[in-house]
């Protein structure tokens, strides 16, 4: 017996069953994925900074893998490589704008990888923004806590890793031609 178009046969009893096509994830599932990834990474960043301040303040560096990976506490008022230390308020304003843009874009997400990319980006930006808002010397001027040190690289934190991973995922989606809503660009 041959199955009709759009149906498939069950080999055990020759019953004709409707064909199922893989469907795109629902908006609700994508938003839950976005919220879950964001929450896990944001909390990881905040907790790692709390632990770094608690356990590394006033102590010598902690070698994890010799000189290759070291825990080294830094309070950074600027951006990467401590550049722009006199622009902490400007960096805070840029971070606030970035959070708002990511939240706006997240409403349009129609693809799993885009949901993950934007959630990871939001976790990174919000993690460092939290430091700028809540840490000394005061709101909008707070210093970001960095603690991971590699040779010939600026000291960084979980939020910084998130921002870089998100950039990679966003570039991947752009090269693949996948828009935020999940549609593909015509080539």
Automatic annotation (TrEMBL):
Any one GO cellular component localisation term in the record: plasma membrane
Entries under NCBIfam families matching the protein: lspA
Domain of life (superkingdom): Bacteria
A Pfam family annotated for this UniProt entry: Peptidase_A8
Pathway the protein contributes to: Protein modification; lipoprotein biosynthesis (signal peptide cleavage)
Protein name: Lipoprotein signal peptidase
Biological process (GO), any one: proteolysis
Membrane topology per record: Multi-pass membrane protein
Keyword Protease (UniProt): yes
Similarity section: Belongs to the peptidase A8 family.
EC number(s) recorded for this UniProt protein: 3.4.23.36
Gene that encodes the chain: lspA
InterPro entries per UniProt: Peptidase_A8
Functional note: This protein specifically catalyzes the removal of signal peptides from prolipoproteins.
Transmembrane segments: 32-52, 87-105, 112-130, 150-172
Active site as annotated: 146, 160
GO molecular function: aspartic-type endopeptidase activity
UniProt keyword list: Aspartyl protease, Cell membrane, Hydrolase, Membrane, Protease, Transmembrane, Transmembrane helix
Coiled coil: none
